[in-house]
Design a protein that fits this description.
This protein has about 200 residues and is of the alpha+beta class. The protein has one domain: Glutaredoxin, CATH 3.40.30.10. It contains 6 helices and 10 strands, in the order H-E-E-E-H-E-H-E-H-E-H-E-E-E-E-H. The chain has an 8-stranded mixed sheet. A two-stranded antiparallel sheet has the order 7-8. It is globular and about 45 Å long. The chain starts with a helix and ends in a 6-residue tail after the last helix. About 10% of the residues have low confidence.
Length: about 200
């Protein structure tokens, strides 16, 4: 009897230790540089716009038929699930600035019934887009093949978490596990702002 009680207490204590494991903030992976883009309402969007809020960013173009619709759908789901965090914001960066003008981005949002409340779609000069995508967010971007069935632009198909100091805090796959990790990390940062410093 004493042995069973000891084993039960040991198992319970291991469960308690496992459940009470302290969550650490995600690491700082980089600082976004100064940049100037424009949003779907033709309003300037720069690094200072990011500061003070937590941002989930993705990279899309409006005539993409493969990963972009899935990224947009996941982002819309995140926007709904994180609606209780007032400083959670969402950013979709067009990687096709030649075609994705502010007017086109605005129409894309309307067609897909996307809320502009805390979601910005941005575009800009091609050089500025390449600079912020490749050297700021540090994600892939390249011209696609001309072969039928391939996209004209190859780009990252994951999400990037940016903190209130415009620092990159994580990269997340666009699947259930990645999105769960992203939501957990954003909630942690938003509730422990001092640990971001």
């Amino acid at each position: 009897m004493h042995y069973k009680t000891t084993v039960l207490l040991l198992v319970l204590s291991l469960l308690i230790v496992g459940c009470s494991k302290k969550t650490e903030p995600p690491p700082v992976l980089g600082q976004l540089p100064e940049f100037t883009l424009v949003d779907q309402n033709s309003q300037a969007f720069d690094r200072q716009t990011l500061e003070g809020d937590f941002w989930v960013a993705d990279f899309i173009f409006t005539h993409c038929r493969s990963t972009c619709p899935r990224l947009t759908a996941h982002m819309q789901g995140l926007q709904t699930r994180l609606s209780d965090i007032p400083n959670a914001q969402f950013l979709s960066v067009s990687v096709d600035p030649r075609n994705d003008t502010p007017k086109v981005l605005k129409a894309y949002m309307a067609k897909n019934e996307l809320s502009e409340a805390n979601w910005r779609f941005v575009t800009g000069e091609e050089k500025a887009i390449r600079e912020v995508v490749l050297n700021g967010f540090k994600v892939g971007l390249a011209e696609g093949d001309d072969e039928p069935g391939t996209e004209a632009i190859m780009h990252a198909n994951h999400f990037v978490l940016v903190d209130e100091r415009a620092q990159v805090r994580g990269y997340y796959r666009a699947n259930n596990d990645g999105i769960a990790d992203l939501e957990r990390d954003l909630r942690f940062l938003a509730s422990n702002v001092s640990s971001v410093r």
